[in-house]
Amino acid sequence: MNPTRAEPDDDFLLLVGVLPSPLQEAVRGLTPGEVLEVVMDLGRPPEARLVQGSVRLREEPVAQADLEHVLAQVGPPGEDNRAGIERTLHRVSAIRNRKGRVVGLTLRVGRAVFGTIDMLKDLIASGRNVLLLGRPGVGKTTKLREVARVLADDLRKRVMVVDTSNEIGGDGDIPHPGIGHARRMQVSRPDRQHDVMIEAVENHMPEAIIVDEIGTSAEATAARTIAERGVQLVATAHGNTLENLVLNPTLSDLVGGVHTVTLSDEEARRRNTQKTVSERKAPPTFDLVVQMVGRDEVLVHLNTAEAVDRLLAGSEVGGERRLLTGGEVRVEAVPHAGAPLPPPRSKAAPAAPAAPPGPLRLFAHGVSRDLMDRVLRELKVETRVVGRLESADLILTLRSRANDPKMRRVVERTGARVEMVKRNSSAELRRVLRGVFMLVEGVDEEQVREAVAEAEHAIQRVLNEGVSVALAPRPPRLRKLQHRLVSRYHLETVSLGSEPLRHLVLYPLGAEVEAAFHESEAEGTA
Ligand SMILES: Nc1ncnc2c1ncn2[C@@H]1O[C@H](COP(=O)(O)OP(=O)(O)OP(=O)(O)O)[C@@H](O)[C@H]1O
């Protein structure tokens, strides 16, 4: 049996079937493709969580008998408090009280989604190790399942899925067709995942290994062992962004690990830094990191080593944004900025051998090349000025030439970013390029770092917890920088208060924000 696009709906009915009958009726009334989870908490009305928001399934609260009804269908949850429904991809997770009795259930709809990794296919096919990051529920497991199928069926590799909670290959001993011909190893207890990862390499000669949720240092070590044996590893890890991972002492090893080193006075002067700095310790286990911003939007770090080095040097990491819209994949370069990377300090900490994605490629369209070169030198940003429109990641165009049909055609094809300058003056070029590279004039680097770190932390909280978060008061330039960072995640921001206490507040997606408050920083007028 091959999975088809229609199959999830048939599978969906199997999940509906384990619910008490009044709830079955309510869930059947919903559009299957929009249901992500059914949530049943003792003493509260049951709910369905949808792609957009959630709905109550009935007013009457969930009773113990309702929970027992579901558990009788799916069997007792394992040590990870999860149970499955045989030959489906659904997952039922239990919440227990202090005495061990189940008082809540989350029934997650699992789906095999064909084509969901179209925007990552080249990365997967490259044979390099890929780590997927993203907030819970963003669709990491669904992508990983399709990675297994594509590697096994389309690229004809010997693939082994290490399936700790049977989430990738589904419940039961025969894997779900969603993983294609990939083989699957079940894991008896979650704390054995690292053993099974090693067992997979030693006993079954795989060319690729797929693992969901690397979360412990034993698993990080197993991942390194697999990578050292030349087996391709595609995995997910706890953590939403590369920054989270680097700051996580247990998992930072996946991206090379971090240690603190003390520089000589001369070296510190040369780099213009403090004497004690954080540096990457080793080559990363994963060559590429894919940060899932949404189901159909990712930020790819094509060279983990370089991205981590930039992060530790306090610079913008940049990357490649990929978007799937109407079946088309659009790729845009996200420029990185800040000080150039320090050279490797000694042979003990070499840079990873992976091919670097290179600096941002810039094309001057109607803009004086000499002037642009001069401003770029002055701003000390790392770019390569290219001679062909087709090779550019970023096109700097004179406003009067912005509608040039040839340029528009190229942009449509390459997805290059276009920035406009009103006139050929160095002040204007400086203004635009500063915006592109997020350079902030008149504030010291430490303040910039702090404002960026604060905004990133808040973004994660808003995305994970769905709450609004107020940032500390900042001067207008830093608020503008924070606003720009937040807007990449399509979150709402407003500025509140008056100077010097004016500050940004971040709101979750879709929150109703009073239009009158809308952030003027967006237009750069603050
Ligand atoms: N491309 C997609 N199309 C339709 N549904 C999807 C898609 N991606 C994910 N989903 C649905 O969204 C929900 C969450 O997906 P998934 O379990 O893959 O997320 P996750 O990031 O692995 O979450 P967690 O970290 O909590 O395990 C599931 O109900 C899944 O079926």
From TrEMBL:
Keywords: ATP-binding, Nucleotide-binding. The keyword ATP-binding applies. Residues 335-354 are annotated as: Disordered. It comes from Stigmatella erecta. This is Stage III sporulation protein SpoIIIAA. Coiled coil: none annotated. Residues 445-510 form the R3H domain. InterPro entries: AAA+_ATPase (IPR003593), P-loop_NTPase (IPR027417), PTPase_dom (IPR058670), R3H_dom (IPR001374), R3H_dom_sf (IPR036867), Spore_III_AA_AAA+_ATPase (IPR045735). The keyword GTP-binding does not apply. GO terms for molecular function: ATP binding; nucleic acid binding.
